[in-house]
Every structure is written in C-alpha cells, then in structure tokens.
Design goal:
single chain; 279 residues; alpha/beta; Rossmann fold; 2 domains; ten-stranded mixed sheet; 10 helices; 10 strands; 46% helix; 22% strand
Length: 279
C-alpha cells in the first residue's frame, strides 16, 4: 500500500476517505495521490463561440477551486503526515479514475461513497460502485468517519468455492489482517437459494482455514434469507469494524441480471469495505 489513490469531489464522504487514507499511508510509509475529475460538458456543432468561451472560463474556475480545496485538505488533515500529491483530470469520472490507476501504477484506491438507493441505484449507481466493479487493484469504500487504528475485527464473507480465483483474494485478505493486526471472522451466509447443512459447512470452513493457514480467526455460519441481509446482520451482531470481500466485476447484461453483493454492500453499509475483483 505504497501508492494510494483518493478520488476526491470534496464531499464529506471524500474527506473521510482522505483522512482514512492518511492513516494507512502513515503506517505503510506510502504516498497519497489526490485526484479530482472535472467532467466536461457535451459540446454540439451548433454551440456558438461565446458559449464555448463561457465553458472554458467555467472549467478553468473549477480547476482553480479544486486546487484551493486540495490545499485546505492537505493543511488540515495531512500537514505532518505522508506525502500528498494532487491531480486534476478531465472526462467521465469512472473512466478517468480507471485510467489513472493504470497510468500511475496505483496499489490501493480509498474512495468515499454517498451510497445510492432505489431507482437511482438501479439505473445509475455510484462512481464508487463502478470503480469497485472495474478496478484492477483493491478498493476501500468509506462512507462515514472511520479510524484505521480502530479496526480490530474484519468480516470475510466467503462462498467457500474451491477455485484458483480465490487464491489472490485470500492472500490480499491475509495481508490486510496483518496490516491492521485484526481478528478475521470468516462467515458463510446460508440462504434458502444456496442451502447447506451446518455440519457440511463447518467441515468446509475448517478445511478452508487449514488450506490457507489462517491465524487469529473465527469460523461462522449465518442463516439469512439473502446474502446482503445476512452480512449486514452478522456485522451488527459481532462488532465488525470492516468488511473484506471479493467481487466478480460483472458488466453489461451479466451485471444487470446478476448484480454484485459487494457493490450492494458498498451502497448500504456504513463501515469501511475492502474489495478485490476476482479475475
């Protein structure tokens, strides 16, 4: 976690993500790259020159204001902390962030999320949800104020699928657990759609822990009507400070039909969520 990207729209959620990233960068001796994306207005051939001039002036003012806000954030939250470099990019937000991750060889994204619900979530979703789906590196979604130093219990919802895709995810979760010096709570959400007898699940959980040589952990089976509700209830009942999960990064019609539990959690859960796309 040496190069940490914090996309920033200067909302409260973005500020909380920056504060969280400062703690992580301080501990990992890394640096923070603050990125503000300015979405360009759609231009048409019929647009007159005065309007174009106005748009250029408006965009320039936005960039100047962004730099001022960057300075305030650095002064207030990272004055004596890690190195912080600020950037401004132009274009569609999610696309610009994805390209920035690749171009700057980012290790981790820490991103604020306001959440979404109802029709807005169904049709549009949040930029954080899009980054969770497409990012080639782990993403921390931060909705409210959270202190990295207070993370002592990490929930790790798992389907117990035996696949090579799990290996990178498990290594990432173990590194995360070691970084925070936290207890790992592996949980299988038992739903009517994917029902297993508890005796069978406990056997699989023990084999899973042994295979990946887990340390300082608990193994749990939680019964619920669906995965999201089960994870939500589990974290509330067990004093969980953070969630770590894999996501399949579905896109297009596949995403429309199937969705992603990780993306739903990003929209609806208040504690920090760490995600990694399982390739």
């Amino acid at each position: 976690m040496k190069k940490i990207l914090v996309p920033c729209d200067f909302s409260d959620a973005a500020v909380q993500a920056f504060k969280f990233a400062v703690e992580i960068a301080t501990q990992s001796r890394g640096e923070i790259l603050l990125l503000h994306v300015i979405e360009l207005p759609v231009m048409h051939d019929t647009v007159l020159m005065p309007t174009l001039s106005f748009e250029e002036s408006f965009i320039k003012d936005m960039a100047v204001n962004a730099e001022k806000n960057f300075s305030k954030m650095k002064e207030k939250w990272a004055k004596s902390g890690p190195k912080v470099i600020s950037f401004i990019e132009y274009g569609p937000t999610a696309h610009a962030i994805k390209n920035f991750i690749k171009d700057k060889k980012i290790d981790l994204v820490v991103m604020g999320t306001k959440g979404a619900s109802g029709v807005k979530e169904f049709l549009v979703g949040s930029n954080t949800e899009k980054i969770v789906r497409m990012s080639p590196v782990p993403v921390f979604a931060v909705k409210k104020s959270a202190k990295a130093s207070s993370i002592k219990n990490i929930a790790f919802p798992n389907t117990l699928e035996d696949s090579a895709e799990q290996d990178e995810l498990i290594l990432g979760v173990k590194a995360l657990q070691n970084f925070f010096k936290a207890k790992l709570h592996v949980v299988y959400i038992n739903t009517p759609a994917n029902f297993k007898r508890d005796s069978v699940t406990h056997q699989q959980l023990n084999a899973f822990a042994k295979r990946f040589m887990l340390k300082d952990y608990t193994l749990n089976v939680y019964n619920a009507t669906d995965q999201e509700m089960g994870i939500t209830d589990f974290i509330h009942e067990n004093g969980i400070d953070m969630i770590a999960m894999g996501t399949h990064g579905r896109r297009g019609l596949n995403h429309f039909m199937s969705g992603s539990v990780a993306e739903d959690m990003v929209n609806h859960i208040n504690c920090p969520i760490w995600t990694l796309v399982e390739k």
